[in-house]
Amino acid sequence: MDPVDLPLTTDRLRLRPYVESDAEAQLRILSREDVSRFLLQDPWTAEVAETQIAKRIPRTGLETESRALALVIETADGLDSLEGSRVIGDIALWLEDGSEEKAEIGWILDPAAGGHGFATEAAIAVLNVAFDHYGLHRVFAQMDARNTASAKLAQRIAMRQEAHLRKDWWSKGEWTDTLIFGMLASDRQTA
């Protein structure tokens, strides 16, 4: 696999690799109870933010040792400079264990940035990279079934709901349901 050309840019967003200074901006988002509620981790502390960002920095492509691409979602007044940019979340793509053709996608968006189509724009850009650059066969997303915003996003980007697993995941003191959405490379050709 060849490296992907980063950052990815869309009409309104820059999707770029992580840097150490992203810890503060991501802490602002991931320390929120309403954001972390549906995630595997508890709300972030400053220490957790530094540790997690350090883990994400080397995730620069599926062809790397990390087998993952972790990108900061950033809005910008002018995409040619960082001036006026604002971190609004992140999006990641990682190869499924033992596979070079299947990957999982995940996203987190600051609720204050919701309702403007930013997550949709970012997810489509990463799916384009997944299928057009990396030539993947399948991309899937798994989420807490109570996370209706994430499920709606998966539907908006034309992923198909493939499963609703009942009480299959023990998370934060309770059994939770999981939704699984998927997209095949061939789905994009018929959409």
Structure in words:
By secondary structure, the protein is α+β, with helices and mostly antiparallel strands. 29% of the residues lie in helices and 34% in strands. It is built from six helices and nine strands; from the N terminus they run ββαααββββαβαββα. Strands 1, 2, 3, 4, 5, 6, 7, 8 and 9 form a nine-stranded mixed sheet that branches. A hairpin with a 2-residue loop joins strand 8 and strand 9 (174-184). The model is unreliable at 78-82 (pLDDT under 50).
The helix/strand order is EEHHHEEEEHEHEEH
Uncertain stretches of 5 or more adjacent residues: 78-82
N- to C-terminal distance:
26 Å
Number of strands: 9
Task: Give the rounded overall mean pLDDT.
Answer: 93
Shape: globular
Biggest sheet details: 9 strands, mixed
SSE-based structural type: alpha+beta
Task: Report helical residue fraction.
Answer: 25-40%
Beta content = 25-35%
Number of helices: 6
- Rg, rounded, reads 16 Å
Topology:
Elements: E1 8-9, E2 13-17, H1 22-30, H2 33-36, H3 46-56, E3 60-61, E4 68-75, E5 86-95, E6 102-109, H4 118-133, E7 138-144, H5 148-156, E8 160-171, E9 174-184, H6 185-190
Parallel strand pairs: 6-7
Antiparallel strand pairs: 1-2, 2-4, 3-4, 4-5, 5-6, 7-9, 8-9
Give a concise summary:
It comes from Brevibacterium permense. By secondary structure, the chain is an alpha+beta fold.
